[in-house]
Amino acid sequence: MTGREPAPRSQVDPDDALARVRDLADDLVRRRSVRDFAPTPLPEGVLEEAVRAAASAPSGAHVQPWRFVVVEDPVVRRRLREAAEAEEREFYERRASEEWLDALGPLGTDASKPFLTDAPGLIVVLEVHAGPRSPRPYYVKESVGIAVGFLLAALHRAGLSTLTHTPSPMRFLGEILDRPAEERGFLVIPVGYPAEGATVPALTRKPLDEVLVRLR
Description:
Helices cover 38% and strands 12% of the residues. The chain is built from eight helices and four strands, in the order ααβαααβαβαβα. It has helices at residues 17-28, 46-54, 74-95, 98-104, 115-118, 140-157, 171-177, 208-211, and strands at 66-70, 121-128, 161-162, 183-192. The termini are far apart.
């Protein structure tokens, strides 16, 4: 059993709470997934601090079932891209239903994934399941999903663009990165600055009254 310590208390004045959360929301709604990256180097230490923020997320039984692999080796990144594109070709040509492909149509995605080698930063997020070096985890996907949310918010706060890439199946991630069997792919996050002339789809989000339910 772990010890106990006093719960942290916010230093935010209640009168400032609405302004602070609105400022954060205004910032986050500007975040967009980017697929075309400039070669501009990332600021020193930013990926490490973003992962530190991600690793502060809550997790089932506090097992912290995540691993964040920052991939810098260009040879490894090329192998990741080739493997991901092979899976994506299978998806677009054989696995995906017409309905799914129609839903993806407005986003302009296809089997080509140049961002895996073009973006100056690449983070592979892995779920950690039970194994020789890992205790049994609880609520793995929920825990890792929360951590990824923290990670994306931290990177956006640093002025960086990201993309959540989810090739399926992801077995090749552990094989190429030489990770133990208990570590399984969750998603891949290219990080960087948008390339000159990069565009994103003109999308709208659901209004608040469609996603918020209040019971009084």
